[in-house]
Amino acid sequence: MLVAAIALAAAAAAGPDRSLAGCGGVPVVAHRGVHSVHTTEDSAASFLRAVQKGADVVEGDARLSADGTWVLMHDPTVNRTTNGRGRVSRLHDATLARLRYTDGRVGVSTLDASLTPLDAAPAQLQIEIKPASPGRGALQRFMAVLDAHGLRARATITSFHPAVLARLRRLDPGWQTAPILTHAPRHAASMRRYGGSVDLAAHAVTWRAVRALHRAGVTVQTWTVDSHPTWRRVVRNGVDGVITDQVSRSQRWCRSVG
């Protein structure tokens, strides 16, 4: 693991291709890193690739192993992205370390190891807490991992479960947090209690919804935008960040937004 971390740090230090960063001031957020058949999503390799591609923000998902270690994994099971089977929460660290990703790399990435590329890069981090009710100790370990990589000032912690964000902010109000929303909130100002930012589903992004949130002092990122028409629509409606699986195509899309 140490050798892998050193390799990731060295590759990141080579510098990103900043030509893909930004879209007329709207940050490009690499959804689960930059992934393909050669690089599995939500892995240390996909995070490194996102940094190399010059994504403004690297986004991923965190789950707890049976040993209480935070690892990168979107799904509740390892079935889709590895050669193993079973729920992440029931698999021990030693088992996860032996699994092989669909891209051939061995070892499910811990959150800690995956953040190494950000140590020497300007990219920000957006990380989703997947568990619906992580305990106090788990949340403290989560924050400690981010702090160890110096990410407090450039990380946003997200969740579909507002109670998780509220619990984390009670433990340490110094973190930027954002609830993930499938619909525009009825009362935009109520979102400020979660830290002044939201992740709003692309289908719910309208000029009126974004304006209401902005007037309430809330910034808006949107997910997941993987087509040119949707990109144009959400950017023209004033979002503050675009989460996409298509980081490599974003430069061309950005040029088309007037």
Total number of strands: 9
The helix/strand class is alpha/beta
User: How widely separated are the two ends?
Assistant: 46 Å
CATH topology: TIM Barrel
Strand order of the largest sheet: 1-2-4-5-6-7-8-9
Number of domains: 1
Can you tell me the CATH class?
Alpha Beta
Largest sheet: 8 strands, parallel, barrel
What's the mean pLDDT score? 91
Rg computed from alpha carbons, rounded to a whole number of angstroms: 18 Å
Task: Just name the CATH architecture.
Answer: Alpha-Beta Barrel
Oligomer: single chain
* Shape by Cα distribution: globular
Q: Strand percentage, roughly?
A: 15-25%
User: Number of helix segments?
Assistant: 9
| Poorly predicted sequence stretches spanning 5 or more consecutive residues | 1-20
| CATH superfamily descriptor | Phosphatidylinositol (PI) phosphodiesterase
GO biological process, one term: lipid metabolic process
Protein name: GP-PDE domain-containing protein
Pfam families: GDPD
Domain GP-PDE: 26-254
